[in-house]
Amino acid sequence: MGSVRAMASTRLLCSFNNRVADSTKTLARAGWSLSCRRNVSSSPSRLQSCMPGWVIDQYGTNGVLTYTEDIPVPTVNSPSDVMIKVYAASLNPLDIAMRGGYGATLLKLKRHPMSVLGSDYGSEFPLILGRDVSGVVVDCGSEVTHVAPGDEVWAAVPPWKQGSLAEFVTLTEYEVSHKPKSVSHAEAASIPYVANTALSALVNAGGLCRDSSSNKRVLITGGSGGVGTFSIQLLKAWGAHVTVTCSQNAEGLVRGLGADEVVDYTAEDASEQLEMMEKFDVVLDNVGGETEQLALGLLKPWSGAKYVTLVTPLLPNTDSMGLLNGMCQAGSSLQSKAIQNIISGGVFYRWGFYAPDGPALDDVSRLVDAGKILPVVEAQFPFTQVPQAFQKLEQGHARGKTVVRVTEEDDQPSEDFVQESYTDTAEFEQERREPAKQH
Prior knowledge:
By secondary structure, the protein is of the alpha/beta class. The protein is 36% helix and 20% strand. It has 14 helices and 15 strands. It has helices spanning 2-29, 93-99, 104-111, 185-188, 192-205, 226-237, 251-256, 270-276, 291-296, 314-321, 323-345, 358-369, 386-394, 425-438; strands at residues 50-56, 65-72, 81-91, 132-140, 152-156, 168-172, 176-178, 217-221, 241-246, 261-264, 282-285, 306-309, 348-351, 377-382, 401-405. Strands 3, 4, 5, 6, 7, 14 and 15 form a 7-stranded mixed beta sheet that branches. Helix 6 links the parallel strand 8 and strand 9. It is globular.
């Protein structure tokens, strides 16, 4: 009887909260200012202690992904924390790598600094993957001023934090930005992590920015994936000349996003085509391996040109050699290549990394609403099909992002479906731009 009363009380409280939320929205639409909004917490932790989500309890292949409804709900523990109800998340190649244990040594140290003393200090499991989130703020810390409960937001979730493949996620205010108004949550979730990664690589390592990129020649290798498709649009918005390498069947996509020249990397004469072109000011390498040496030779000598690669040995080295030896080996490799290239051709050799940056996403949001950056979603999966979403991403040859709809939006059908990519450029542009025009 006691449990029945408790359930009834919870339902009554939920109903009351829903009515209050509806009334708040009605007053807001009517132009009323609610000065008490910041003092009223809508945190679900008051109503529930657990949430559904996908976790891994060990590293491995797709079989380690487990659905559970017993994940503790994250709470607002810091004055700068922002708690978000997740509407959509997207997968990145990093999620597949982390599922297999990539970066475990360094990321565990970031989560649990005391783990440097031994394996008994803290555990990364159960681990929630998912590096992108688009959703609605449900609770804020006392010092948060940029967003408030009820705001639609998007963010990139740092790899050392619990991810977005769950009902709720908590981040800091600095990592969160207002979601673009012209796109859905599913579309918005395709952008934050690749945006923060590309901006960190192009701006921090590549030395480019909105005011200095006009007529700069930039080469992007592996341009049809998430980072590539975003970088093309960003650089074109900044006025750069962009050349892209990708497979032949992705040419329509990258040209539709603004690429000036496209080289099929599978062609026998791909290297010759690139070497015949005018030299580049910046190379953003998403491929690594043998591509690195070729790309270094394509840069303008003695002119401050920069090679930036996102394929670095830092995390693999710390995983295989241990924290200290791995970092020393990676640092030695970077220093050796940097010195060698600056001496031989006056070219700067740099590594690019993801860096959380909510204010940068504010600028990206404005570009999206202006129609200068389009979300590139290759496939969508419902929350029940997260393993299938991982399988899709593992097939490689990405044409944009793979998105997981964690909470169905009101205007979106709830039936399970997989939306494959648009391969026709004209159809792609028309269908992506129409919602923004209508809005």
